[in-house]
């Protein structure tokens, strides 16, 4: 400011008055009552609101003050809050500017002093109790007293300078008037000024003495309190770190103790709440070892079936026709038919096929504060927020979808089942198995670019091949198609919605998954459950799956209801527990499934059901009498050193392996993802930003083309009847305006859902090496 500033007001001073504040384009500037006090500028609709309703407050310590014209000025604190204000006159505006600048300077000065003193008492933990609160009040009171004393010293200094100057002038005038007759009057005036100067000097001396005394009396106490607060903060940080480590150790110990195989096989644990018993070789009586009763809040419980059911040999259908032939290993419903079938998957796996890689470069140990980035994402849709590759794993979302096929053998076996109910059990087990790869995978997959594809050709290895394509960017949606020589087709379209809630991150997969079998023409569909990433702020990240899945056979009406129990420290159940019941179209239960989504699933055939006792919530639970539980699916062990390779499974390690002949849009060709896998994270971050900016440019170009097309005579009538330019822009961003390369939208009459279905042509184009139609996205 070029103009001299007025004297600094005392800490208790406030500045009030009417200003016009910009509200919106409809109402324009509105008259508001503003109050400037203690470095804060607040406003109200009227003076009467000051006692109860504040409309907004901005802290001047971090604010910028800018003058626009003679009456207008702007106050902003970096984008979160911006006030466009207008005074009635230029003089009034200058008064406000002066007051605001002074208040800002004082607020910055007080904040700097607070930071220098290390005073963090207001952020003290609750454990400090009432003593900490009293100490804070005492310090604040002392600071206010010292502040007032300093202001008194400033005032006395100004008065001393003023009266000293006046005294000097009087003495000079006295020298000039020695010879005149007015010496008496001048002597009297000098005496008065000298008296004022003496009084002011005494006041200055007294104020200095009081300030010095007060500062000395509190200096030692403040130093002691400061050291105490610093020590306490250090102890709290160390305690918090130790608690986080103890939390992780206890959690690992608890999970390790509850997921041991013995917990599934030991009959003594029958009352501890678990899943079906495994039946070790040491069991003496197979007729008496079945399963463990399920605890509340389960909707049903299971009890051993009558032994007479175990002696049946010819009356039971499917794999249970020979119960004595089942050992304690993994058994399936169609085990006998698979063992005698020369086309079983086991014979195919013996063929020498391409050797694929078993390792990738170890994950670099780059530290990045997750909370420093995620704190700005609370409540937002994370798919629209650019994230550094430090939070990623070197796979795209398309490759993660392809990982669902890791346990494709379940669908191969399901395709050979004669009974739709048995087939339902395998489809349900396949549904659960797709989550087993996520238990340690806390890294975020790369968001695919629009038009990006990924092929997984395992026709020679496993008898299937699949193709994924990113068919929409906002919202992100991927279409997946897998076809097997064993007579099944898997197709899905998944749209991910994610929200960060502060302590955890929720990922909600939207869309449908469908499985079709050629021989039986059975058509299944289901949806995915919610994935939650915990301990975002402190502790080790861990993942949980929770929710319910209904697997429906649209041809027969059979249904399997799966329940993924959320993890709880206080539950006596096995962590990551999954239970399910297979019912026919009439609602009659035939099979019970139980297990965990990260280890294994078991099934039991229901021989009889009845209504049992009431649960803890007063609901009557169904009691199922079942045969001995057998294993239907078990997770493959992770490769050696997986903890250094993003906890990838054997299949995941091969997904980003370079292959010849794939489309130019394939995820394996994505440069930032390849750089991250090679450990060049800085280069990967730079390349990722280039690809995202390139995608935004293409998107804007597509929007311009859409707006241009909408301006044709055929569209003009629609625009004239009220279509806004913003609406045209929104329409252009709709995924319908992007035509996928290999998928078309299809209205499925069986499930009543609309999804992208493979339209063919990809594998033919690969054989011919003709990729001219593919867009350039990398």
TrEMBL record:
Keywords: Coiled coil, Lipid transport, Lipid-binding, Membrane, Phosphoprotein, Transport. Residues 666-679 have a biased composition (Basic and acidic residues). One of its GO terms (cellular component) is plasma membrane. Residues 226-253 form a coiled coil. It is a peripheral membrane protein. SUPFAM superfamilies: Oxysterol-binding protein-like (SSF144000), PH domain-like (SSF50729). PROSITE patterns: OSBP, PH_DOMAIN. InterPro entries: OSBP_sf (IPR037239), Oxysterol-bd (IPR000648), Oxysterol-bd_CS (IPR018494), PH-like_dom_sf (IPR011993), PH_domain (IPR001849). Residues 111-135, 265-289, 658-679, 704-734 are annotated as: Disordered. GO terms for biological process: lipid transport. GO terms for molecular function: sterol binding. Residues 12-105 form the PH domain. It is found in: Membrane. Belongs to the OSBP family. This is Oxysterol-binding protein.
């Amino acid at each position: 400011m070029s103009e001299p500033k007025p004297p600094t007001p005392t800490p208790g001073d406030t500045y009030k008055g009417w200003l016009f504040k910009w509200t919106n384009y409809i109402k324009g500037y509105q008259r508001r009552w503003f109050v400037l006090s203690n470095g804060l500028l607040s406003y109200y609709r009227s003076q009467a609101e000051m006692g109860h309703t504040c409309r907004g407050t901005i802290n001047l310590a971090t604010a910028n003050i800018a003058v626009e014209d003679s009456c207008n000025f702007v106050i902003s604190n970096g984008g979160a809050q911006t006030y466009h204000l207008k005074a009635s006159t230029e003089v009034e505006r200058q008064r406000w500017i002066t007051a605001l600048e002074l208040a800002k300077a004082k607020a910055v000065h007080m904040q700097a002093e607070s930071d220098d003193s290390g005073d963090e008492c207001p952020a003290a933990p609750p454990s400090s109790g009432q003593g900490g609160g009293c100490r804070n009040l005492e310090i604040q009171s002392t600071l206010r007293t010292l502040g007032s004393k300093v202001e008194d010293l400033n005032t006395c200094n100004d008065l001393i300078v003023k009266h000293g100057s006046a005294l000097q002038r009087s003495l000079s005038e006295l020298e000039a008037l020695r010879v005149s007759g007015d010496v008496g009057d001048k002597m009297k005036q000098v005496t008065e000024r000298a008296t004022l100067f003496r009084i002011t000097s005494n006041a200055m001396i007294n104020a200095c003495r009081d300030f010095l005394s007060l500062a000395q009396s509190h200096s030692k106490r403040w130093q002691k309190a400061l050291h105490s607060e610093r020590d306490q903060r250090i102890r709290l940080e160390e305690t918090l770190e130790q608690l986080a480590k103890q939390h992780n150790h206890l959690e690992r110990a608890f999970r390790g103790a509850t997921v041991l195989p013995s917990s599934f096989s030991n009959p003594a644990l029958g009352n501890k709440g678990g899943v079906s018993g495994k039946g070790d070789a040491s069991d003496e009586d197979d007729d008496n070892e079945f399963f463990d009763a399920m605890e509340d809040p389960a909707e049903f419980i299971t009890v051993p079936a009558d032994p007479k059911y175990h002696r049946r040999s010819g009356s039971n259908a499917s794999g249970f026709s020979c119960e004595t032939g089942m050992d304690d290993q993994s058994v399936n419903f169609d085990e006998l038919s698979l063992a005698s079938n020369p086309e079983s998957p086991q014979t195919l796996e013996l063929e020498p096929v391409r050797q694929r890689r078993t390792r990738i470069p170890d994950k670099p140990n780059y530290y990045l504060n997750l909370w420093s980035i995620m704190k700005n994402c609370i409540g937002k849709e994370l798919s629209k927020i650019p994230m550094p590759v430090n939070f990623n794993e070197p796979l795209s979302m398309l490759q993660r979808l392809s990982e669902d096929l890791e346990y494709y053998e379940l669908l191969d076996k399901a395709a050979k089942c004669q009974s739709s109910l048995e087939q339902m059990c395998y489809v349900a087990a396949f549904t659960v198995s797709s989550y087993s790869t996520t238990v340690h995978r806390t890294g975020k997959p790369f968001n695919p670019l629009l038009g990006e594809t990924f092929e997984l050709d395992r026709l020679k290895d496993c008898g299937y091949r699949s193709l994924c394509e990113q068919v929409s960017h906002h919202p992100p949606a991927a279409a997946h198609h897998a076809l097997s020589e064993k007579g099944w087709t898997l197709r899905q379209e998944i749209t991910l919605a994610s929200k960060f809630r502060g302590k955890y991150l929720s990922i909600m997969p939207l869309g449908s998954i469908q499985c079709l079998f050629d021989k039986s023409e059975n058509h299944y569909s289901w949806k995915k459950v919610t994935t939650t990433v915990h301990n975002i702020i402190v502790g080790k990240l861990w993942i949980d799956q929770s929710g319910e899945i209904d697997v429906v056979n649209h041809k027969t009406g059979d249904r399997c209801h799966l329940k993924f129990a959320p993890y709880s420290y206080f539950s006596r159940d096995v962590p990551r527990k999954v239970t399910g019941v297979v019912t026919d179209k009439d609602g009659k239960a035939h099979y019970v499934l139980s297990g965990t989504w990260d280890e294994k699933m078991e099934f039991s055939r229901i021989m009889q059901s009845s209504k049992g006792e009431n649960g803890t919530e007063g609901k009557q639970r169904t009691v199922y009498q079942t045969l001995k539980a057998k294993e239907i699916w078990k997770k493959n062990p992770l490769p050696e050193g997986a903890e250094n390779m993003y906890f990838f499974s054997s299949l995941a390690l091969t997904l980003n392996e370079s292959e010849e002949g794939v489309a130019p849009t394939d995820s394996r060709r994505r440069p930032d993802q390849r750089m991250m896998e090679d450990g060049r994270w800085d280069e990967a971050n730079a390349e990722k930003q280039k690809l995202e900016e390139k995608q935004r440019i293409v998107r804007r170009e597509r929007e311009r083309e859409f707006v241009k097309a909408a301006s044709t005579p055929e569209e003009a009538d629609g625009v004239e009847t009220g279509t806004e330019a913003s609406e045209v822009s929104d329409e252009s961003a709709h995924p319908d305006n992007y035509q996928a390369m290999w998928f078309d939208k299809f209205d499925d009459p069986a499930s009543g859902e609309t999804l992208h279905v493979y339209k063919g042509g990809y594998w033919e184009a690969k054989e011919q090496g003709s990729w001219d139609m593919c867009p350039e996205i990398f």
